Model the fold of this input.
Amino acid sequence: MTAAVATPLDVKLMNLTATVLFVAALVLIGMAAARWAARLSLFDIKGIVVSGDVSHNNAVTLRANVAPRLSGTFFSVDLPRVRAAFEAVPWVRQATVRREFPNSLHVVLQEHHAVAYWGSEGEPRLINNFGEVFEANVGEVEQDTLPRLNGPQGQSIEVLTMYRTVEPLFAQLDMLVDELELSNGGSWRVQLDTGAGIELGRGSAADVTARVRRFLQTLTQVTSRYGRRAEALESADLRHDNGYAIRLRGVSTTAAVVPKK
Done:
């Protein structure tokens, strides 16, 4: 019976080295072939499909504006750069970009949905339904009755949340909130569509809501004492602990009012 002959260690090492070199050569050849194929004109970006929200932007114009900024092929195009180019367009909030083999890109857009103007009168800033501030041509706003919100930088979400809290309360008396402002000191103020200004004071949404409810529940009763309707309100100050002060058109004094419990 013939005994098996062990393979010398140096032969094993040579075989292992040869295998590693062979695999490495295949990898390098594959990489070179991939780079060569990626440069073929077949994979040059020849089309951009734009879908999603395009209410304020024409898809053809978008492609024409962004295409010159593209470089590379299907394999090498910088998708984050493409996304940034689309998101730099006015009204575009978010762009999702994906490759479509062999030479196209598909871009899905989400536009800002404006719910209010932001800042002082004349500023080209709006606020979307997420509470994010963005710049756009305010002349393209589809709604004519958007309110104006204002507040310190970085607090747009809080201001929008407060607007959504108090607006339905005033609407119960057919009062429309035209403006809501948060001062640097943390005090809230609204202006109605009638021009009346109302100081809401400081505090959480719950604190402000309680004061507004107390005010609105007794406003008609108070104005009737002076032979006026709620529409005659010129101003109100809700910052009093046990009541509020109002001024009515045609009434020369401002009276402190303590609602009955």
